[in-house]
């Protein structure tokens, strides 16, 4: 805060962010942050910082995935293979799924001919 004044509720501090005056109380001034910004401004700054960090992380992940696409796909295929080999219910489900796809495909082929 920059400056204090005597308000209705007693001493009030002026927030560096919104330039408004608030009572010198933990409700309006978050502790342990040097009393520079009011609670609302602190929350907003934290939100902006978190959003910026999240956006940077998303961009980094997208870039990394694009650069390692083949490695990622190979890992995914390997996990799929392992699951097919170790999980009989999953194998049955995959077989049913592919049988259904084949049935639809064959009926489409029949229509075209
Ligand atoms: Zn403020």
Describe the structure.
By secondary structure, the protein is mostly helical. It is 64% helix and 11% strand. Strands 1-2-3 form a three-stranded antiparallel β-sheet, with no helix packed on it. Helix 2 packs across helix 3. The longest helix has 29 residues. The protein is rod-shaped. The termini are far apart. Bound molecules: zinc ion (ZN). The site of zinc ion has 8 residues, from helix 1.
Brief digest:
This protein is about 65% helix and about 10% strand. With about 110 residues, the protein is mainly α. A hairpin with a 2-residue loop joins strand 1 and strand 2.
Main sheet, how many strands, which sense, barrel?
Answer: 3 strands, antiparallel
Number of strands: 3
> Tell me, what's the shape?
rod-shaped
Task: Please estimate the helix content.
Answer: 55-70%
Uncertain stretches of 5 or more adjacent residues: none
Tell me the distance between the termini. 80 Å
Question: How would you spell out the order of helices and strands?
Answer: EEEHHH
Strand proportion: 5-15%
Q: Could you tell me which ligands this complex binds, including any ions or cofactors?
A: zinc ion
Radius of gyration: 30 Å
What is the fold's blueprint, element by element?
Layout: E1 4-7, E2 10-14, E3 21-23, H1 39-67, H2 69-86, H3 88-112
Antiparallel strand pairs: 1-2, 2-3
The protein binds zinc ion.
Zinc ion (ZN) binds next to α1.
